[in-house]
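Retro notes - structure team

What went well: the batch runner handled both jobs without manual restarts.
What didn't: labels got mixed up in the shared folder, which is why I'm recording both outputs here explicitly, each with its sequence directly above its tokens.

Job 1
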Amino acid sequence: MFLVLLSYLAFFSIALPDSMLGVAWPSMRLSFGQSLGAAGLIPPFGVAATIVSTLLTRHVVARLGIGRLLAVSTVLSAVGLVISAASPTMAVFLVSVVMLGFSGGAIDVTLNAYAARSFGPRRINLMHASYVIGAAASPALVTLFLQVGVSWRVPYLVIAGLQLLLAGVFAVGARRWQEAEGRRRVHPWTENVDQRPEWRRKTQPRTAHASPDTDPARNRRPRMKIAAVVGIAAVVVQTGIESSVALWAYSFLTLGAGIGAGIAGLAVSGFWLMMFLSRVVLGSLAEGLGSRTIMGAGAIGLLVAAVLTAVGTTWPAAAVASVLVFGLAAGPMYPLLILTTRDRTTATGLDRLVAAQAASSAVGAATLPLLFGFAMSASPSAFAPIMLGAAVGALVLHLVLRGGSFRS
């Protein structure tokens, strides 16, 4: 249970810097002399760092172990936040974004691979709910400082200090990870199927007379490859939606729907709060109702939220409601996509597909917000039609995953 709690705390830590930019950017851009739409140019730098981090993490974990990787990555995050706060130009700030991408990517892929093997729907949702707590806390902190007239740089320094404290906790707990790995005699990245509990085994033993043409495992491989590709696409769209709401909802509410800065800041925090509640509640319900049922409800909810954004350009209350509904609907989607990775691949390919999905989530978190940046530079109201298209795409991908029988 101690390692489960450390996993939750680690996801809390990587969320803190991730969600600050959306609220800080309108003030930050003035310091850097940038346009509003320039915020869309920032995520690709973090994405590139995250992808490189995902590719290297497997080797780094093999050398350091999970516990030390958590500690080192959190220290790197703290250093990146200090550089963010001290940045005199946009170029220097982008350096800090790259550092934060390296840090968050390493923690994300390592713990998601661990959770996909070891957790059920409730625990993996609680782990991602811990991310939401951090993601809700930091925008509220930035909003508080800005409302009292303090520079956007100060909350970055405050979060950097908190990251250093968390790094100390991870360093102390590193030995527990080592002990757990020693007891298992196998690392989560290279775990052999036969060493897992019986109920988690997915192997189907061959008979002595099995041939390549009648081997069920061989025959389902093409379908599983298709499922893996569709699952990656679903992750891209899902994380793109979440990141776009986190980054652009504040600007949409204030500039596109005419809502005051204070209420808009609270609405962004409300987005993360609703996501937290849905992961806690719906994640638990998924234990009994099944992951597919909860994911279906979430996909429909995303479409409802997107419709509300269109109404919100003339009815401000609907705009605020749309941000909250996005949080409620999106909450369990990404954790359950990670959990159901084992339905779309073999046991030996699980870690590689989780890493591919982690990289694709970073791509989605950059590409869709970038599209929003270009569109919202012309009109803040463009948030509504682009979000509607993304929500339709998410629903279609879910229906493809649900309709296909990818497991035999």
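Job 2
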Amino acid sequence: MKHKHASFSWRWPWVLSALVIVFALGLSCSHLFSQSISYQNKNDLVEKTPNLSSVLALQEVLRNIAQSVMPAVVSITVEGEEVIPNPYADFFDDPFLRRFFGFDEMPKEYRRKLQGAGSGFIVSKDGYIFSNYHVVKGANKIVVILSDNRQFQAKVVGYDEELDFAILKINANNLPVVAIGDSDTVQVGDFAIAIGNPFGLSGTYTLGVVSALGRQGMTGFQRFIQTDTAVNPGNSGGPLINIRGQVIGINTAIRSQTGAYEGISFAIPINTALASADQILTKGRVERGYMGVVLGEIDETTRKLLKIDGGVLIARVEKNSAAEKAGLKARDIILKVNGKSVSKPEDVQIMIGSQKPGATVTLEILRENKKQNIQVTLDKRPTTSSAQKEPSQEQPGLATVEFLGGIFAEANKSQLDANGAEYGVILQDVKEDSVLTQIMRPGDIVMAINNQPIKNISDFRDFVKRYGNERSYLFVIASRGYVYYRGIER
């Protein structure tokens, strides 16, 4: 026992030393972890920036837009069915092949379920919603999901397929609604905000600017607002909003090689959608004004020779149409519609289409180098169109005249009728290096040159003898049922 006590006494100084060291280290670590970092809260250089308060005010506006508009933006999910023809149905229709391969009967088609998603926005407290037609087209079931995650089944009240616009309705009350703006006041450079459901990410908010106005869409009645606001699949049908928090458009499409956003997106102007909505809600359908003309573009050379800045050619006037009743003729040039200048066929189409049947429009036209005004009372636009006949290829077999590298001959009645011409000569052939290849092709009819009617091959021969050395020519050409002006210079 005495030996053991001595051994413990010998170790005690070492134990005491270890305890002192541990205690010292504890004090040191305690001091280390009790220290704190003093973080800098202000960026002094930015704080000194002139007019920083204006930028902060803009930021507050953007926050307020998000807070006020997001509750009225909805996500839309759809379920539908697609019918797919069976490419092997006809092949296995033979009884022998059915027995050989063991098929009792080969179905003619298959049905496949489809699912899709898009966006929309509430325009009335009792549940009317604007969206795109392509979002709900062919849907058997439509579910609208609000920002607070409430879900409602929706029905389609009506749609405008040519505009790609649809109105939905859910059974609910006291809903948040968007503020409607005026798309006619939108200008390039304006702020443009999109809110929607891209890739299923509801409540996504993106900011950009208006890049261009009046972009032609896939139909003659689509004139889009173009923006650089990020829009992706699922944004379709959602609102495009200005800096005042008002809806100025319906996001509809993007231009992309990958299917995702690449800097160009398009929206239907809200004023255009409202005009369709008014007819859908009052009539149950959209009706557009119709003149009954076929329109053609006028190239720059032709405009120069006619001494006009713009204009759209009337290539053909339909029988018993509003245009014929008003006195319009083929080869008239429309310069203005209700006082607004036009330069493309789409300009006239959308201006006339935006009017209701029965409305009267005033056209300023150019006829035989003289301007005049003609009033046209519009008809209802038909829903179907007829195909154009191909021109006959039979040759007239009469004397020919060579002019500007082209071979012209007398046109027979079937060739005139096929091209929609009352008279003229037909282009039988043309050299590859001829200037005529720029404006016409074999089978086309020349009805006049430089305001000189060409009723037959004799008239054409006389014209070539008298004016064959001119530097410029203005042709009236009939082709496949259309009549148009084309100018050339050499």
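One thing worth noting from job 2: The first strand starts at residue 73 and ends at 85.
We'll revisit the folder naming next retro.
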